[in-house]
What does this fold into?
Amino acid sequence: MSLVPLGAFVAVSAALFFIGLGGVLVRRNAVVILMCVELMLNAANLALVAFSRRYGLVDERGSVFVVFIFVIAAAEVAVGLAIILALYRNRPTVDVDEVTEMKG
Amino acid sequence: MFDLLEPLLFAILALTLLGSAALVVLAGRITTSALFMAFAFLNMAGMFVLLGAETIAAFQVLIYVGAITVLILYGVMFTPQSARPYGLFFQRQTPVGALIAALAALPALVFSFGFHDNGAALPKGNDLAKIATSVFSDFAFPFEIASVLLLAAMVGAIALVRRQE
It folds into this structure.
């Protein structure tokens, strides 16, 4: 019936999550870090939808969680970009390793 | 013949999804990263269609490919390119960060192949009514909280970028 196994979807989700994690750890530009966080959130969405569709429950709880994650991702990217713009106004860089005002 | 269509589509979608996600991380120019991120989101919408969650796929295209990509592109336009766009291979934390991510990814990938269908997959499509029923009955309170969160994010974003007169 369903030819693509559930594990394949979960594996793609895990791979995407760790690609995003690698980007967050490796990249220096704050906007790119925000993009990688969005990729990680989307990977979680894929896992939730896959389990929701394939694990044989009658309702769509996983998909409802995904709808809420959409809301939170939108709020997060709006506030994150606002913080980056405010930071850029204070000093002309968006590289996270050069923002050292709060370093102890 | 049509039995092979679904795995073939899955393979194409998975390869382009992971490839464009890797290019988001590896691309030197920020605009390139943003456009590959939009492409990755489109491929993810295809994954949702393959799983039969058509409503979620539509939301994905509307919110991620539409709104979030445009917002990120605005951020790219408002902030300058770094003077060191290819700082990727010369920064100190790159090897350590990549090593940590790879080490964490290996057991997770092995573990994720251990999940199997329990033979009770939902029929494809027609999920809007169920999602709507859940959102407005069981999840009515989180729904209200989400609307408050969106309002707070909007007010916070305006307050953060407003110039002090």
